[in-house]
Write a structure and sequence with these properties.
This protein is an alpha/beta fold. The chain contains 18 helices and 26 strands. It has an 8-stranded antiparallel beta sheet, covered by helices on one side. The protein has a 6-stranded antiparallel beta sheet with strand order 5-6-7-8-12-13. The chain has a 5-stranded parallel beta sheet with strand order 18-17-19-20-21, sandwiched between helices. A hairpin with a 2-residue loop joins strand 15 and strand 16. The structure holds 2-deoxy-2-amino glucitol-6-phosphate. 2-deoxy-2-amino glucitol-6-phosphate binds next to helix 8.
Length: about 600
């Protein structure tokens, strides 16, 4: 998704904008640009280009003392990838950057007759034109921005410069995220997320929807649509700039795979007291979990697959009905929720638009909405009735890894709490489960030791066209995440299949050399899965087996075997996924792909 950065303060703006855009590259983009008040006059200069931030830096050819500007990385929605369609867009009084989609841009174009004056194919240029037109009518930048957004439908995070107001940035949002901060040493910053200005401040506030921000070196004014000043609610993160840097790793993804032991430990430790789950640190007491008769988990992508693991563990161990819903489906359905339904909304970014919309729908049916998110102060966190943060630190790579394992660990704690309150588990059993959960960071650390073996193996995968991940029970759920990891960063078609389903169609696709990642750690179905694997092997599959067995060398069963250390069934997911993550990572790099920024993908999907 697009990245936004704005700065006005006591330093030259251009270096801050360019560095901020580099920090936002992980969001996914295809062009970049900046606008600034040239030498702090009323002349707004724009530099923009299709390509990377490094390409933009190359065209920022004029040293100037501007202390105020805005910058943007564009993930194309309306209009192709071109310099003309790159942001910022200038129209009349205004230079504008935008993250989101203005759904009625064509209607606005026709209403105002902008057509012949437009130089791009973007909805953003139309927005700039509306804002400039409103300025002509109202003569005030803030009122012009408010009046313009009142006529717009869709999602937006706008930052605007008005040439009559050098040194000031005006901003307003709806759905698309923005955060801001001001320090007396540096000035005012605004961005899509904190990583863009973490070098200057760990304090920030999430910009409320439909509130106007006026940023100047002296401070930030926040006001509602009626002009009433509102006090920003500042938050502070517990991580620093190094967390948003690679620190010697070739890619953020590999760093984040290795950060998982720490991420999981930080997520669960504050929520365990006397070997039992305790969510008082989240301000959540047991009343949330009392009279819960069913659970609905809502998420997208990896967060959904984490939810599926959590759901299976809760169903199997505590007999509580749990459904897992794809947010983009759920939000358009007539959900069967009631006051006894606990809705868990899972999201790393806390900004996924479909998940946010699904949460808003769920809130019309129950007051038991619990957000499981990684980004403090994110929209989903702020709009849920309750919030539980994973403490994985910033996850920069598009492919989610440490957030997934942290989410699963959090689901396990929630499950044990539900089991205790529902009297489905005795305290000694609960303590034993939680103490095993405490050892998960060590389990993950052990599996990282397989890295070299996995890296060597991927040469067998980099030319594959189709890869199948098969398993039963929790192994099938983790196979879904494994398959997603591979396809999203290596561009190889990968599918997860319930091993018992193969005979119902998919096995027709298994031919000589087709890689099959076979996961068999669930004791009650191990024999069945082994039979399923042999069926694929008999048809020429290249089988990579992950199982508890020691040293499997049967050529009729598998070509490669990874021993999964013996832990309770519910916990092998933490071991297996590390191998799948590394398999995806090294296959991606083996194919010359940058796993941190895979094509077409964004870290946080804030457009529908
Ligand atoms: C996972 O590797 C992908 N980046 C994607 O599926 C992601 O999990 C999904 O977009 C949900 O994002 P969220 O957790 O921030 O809501």
């Amino acid at each position: 998704m697009c990245g936004i950065i704005g700065f006005t303060g006591f330093h030259k703006a251009q270096p801050i904008l360019l560095e901020g855009l580099k920090r936002l590259e992980y969001r996914g983009y295809d062009s970049a640009g900046i606008a600034y008040f040239r030498d702090n006059t009323t002349h707004i200069s724009i530099r923009k280009t299709a390509g990377k931030v490094s390409d933009l830096a190359a065209v920022c050819d004029d040293e100037n003392d501007s202390i105020c500007g805005i910058g943007h990385t564009r993930w194309a929605t309306h209009g192709g990838v071109s310099t003309a369609n790159a942001h910022p867009h200038k129209f009349g009084h205004v230079a504008l950057i935008h993250n989101g989609i203005i759904e009625n841009y064509q209607e606005l174009t026709d209403t105002y007759g902008f057509g012949p004056k437009l130089k791009s194919q973007t909805d953003t240029e139309v927005a700039a034109a509306v804002i400039s037109t409103k300025y002509d009518e109202l003569g005030d930048p803030g009122e012009a921005l408010k009046a313009a957004v009142r006529e717009m439908k869709g999602s937006f995070a706008f930052c605007a410069l008005f040439k009559e107001y050098p040194g000031k940035i005006f901003a307003i949002r709806n759905v698309s995220p923005m955060v801001a901060t001001w320090t007396k040493e540096d000035g005012a910053f605004i961005a899509s997320d904190l990583t863009a200005f973490i070098d200057y401040s760990k304090r920030y506030f999430a910009v409320p929807e439909y509130h106007l921000l006026t940023l100047s070196p002296e401070g930030i004014r926040l006001e509602d649509m009626d002009g009433n000043e509102v006090k920003p609610e500042y938050l502070t993160v517990d991580w620093d700039v190094s967390a948003a840097q690679k620190e010697g790793y070739p890619h953020f993804m590999l760093k984040e795979i290795h950060e998982q032991p720490d991420a999981i430990a930080k997520t669960i430790a504050p929520r365990i007291r006397d070997s039992l789950p305790d969510f008082s640190v989240d301000g959540i007491d047991d009343s949330l979990f009392e009279d819960v008769r069913d659970i609905t988990v809502i998420a997208c992508g990896t967060a959904l697959y984490a939810g599926m693991v959590g759901a299976q563990m809760i169903r199997e161990n505590f007999g509580i009905p749990v459904s897992c819903e794809i947010a983009s489906e759920f939000r358009y359905e007539r959900p069967v929720l009631n006051a006894h339904t606990l809705v868990i909304v899972c999201s790393q970014s806390g900004e996924t638009i479909d998940t946010l919309a699904a949460l808003r729908l769920a809130k019309t049916r129950t007051k038991k909405t619990l957000a499981l998110v990684n980004v403090k102060g994110s929209s989903i966190a702020r709009e849920s009735d309750y919030v539980m943060y994973t403490h994985a630190g910033p996850e920069i790579a598009v492919a989610s890894t440490k957030a997934y394992t942290s989410q699963v660990a959090a689901f396990y704690l929630i499950g044990v709490k539900l089991g205790l309150i529902g009297k489905k588990i005795l305290i000694p059993e609960a303590k034993e489960f939680v103490e095993t959960l405490r050892t998960v960071p060590d389990m993950v650390h052990t599996m990282l030791g397989y890295e070299d073996r996995v890296a060597a193996l991927t040469k067998r995968l980099i030319h594959a066209w189709d890869v199948f991940y098969i398993g039963r029970g929790l192994d099938y759920k983790v196979a879904m995440e494994g398959a997603l990891k591979l396809k999203e960063i290596s561009y190889i078609h990968a599918e997860a299949y319930a091993a018992g389903e193969l005979k119902h169609g998919t096995i027709s696709l298994v031919e000589d050399g087709v890689p099959v990642i076979a996961i068999s750690t669930q004791k009650n179905v191990h024999g069945k899965v082994i039979s399923n694997i042999r069926e694929t092997k008999a048809r020429g599959a290249y089988v990579i087996l992950l199982s508890r067995d020691e040293n499997v060398t049967d050529p009729a069963l598998c070509d490669v075997h990874f021993h999964i250390p013996d832990v309770p069934d519910e916990f092998t997911v933490f071991e297996v996924i590390v191998i799948c993550q590394m398999l995806a990572y090294y296959t991606s790099t083996g194919r010359g792909v940058n796993p941190d920024q895979p094509r077409n993908l964004a870290k946080s999907v804030t457009v529908e």
